[in-house]
Amino acid sequence: MALDGWLACTECRMCLALGKPIRPDGDNIRYFQVGYVANSAQPDLTRALWKFLADHAGHPLRVLVTGQPGYDELEHFIEIGGDAAPDVPFQGYLPDFPG
Asked: How far apart are CA 64 and CA 15, in angstroms?
């Protein structure tokens, strides 16, 4: 996994990349960022996050960062927004989502 922060549904074994955890004070995570653009300015990522939350309502969700228990298991999860099989690219995940 190239990115450090993930939202994961442990029941469905699916995950969504949140990006790099930004820690301005060196300790607490203030926000996550994928690339050089704020996550909130990335429409597909934002829509995918809301769809992921709706699709997995009632399931055990975890935010995982490097070094936490369960992080290494993510390599066996299906990634929303990923481009390798069996991942689901945003184009395949979002077409009918109205949110």
From this structure: 10
Give the integer Cα–Cα distance in Å for 63 and 96. Answer: 26
Interatomic CA distance for residues 33 and 18, integer angstroms: 7
For residues 46 and 30, give the distance between their C-alpha atoms in angstroms, rounded to a whole number.
Answer: 17
Which of these, 98, 96, 59, lies nearest to 77 by C-alpha position?
59
Peptide bond into 86 cis (omega under 30): yes
**Global confidence as pTM:** 0.90
CA torsion angle 47 22 27 71 (round to 10)? 60
Residue 47 near residue 33, CB atoms below 8 Å: no
Average pLDDT, the chain: 93
Pair of tokens at residue 1? 């996994």
The pLDDT value recorded for residue 1 is 43
Overall residue count recorded for the chain in this entry: 99
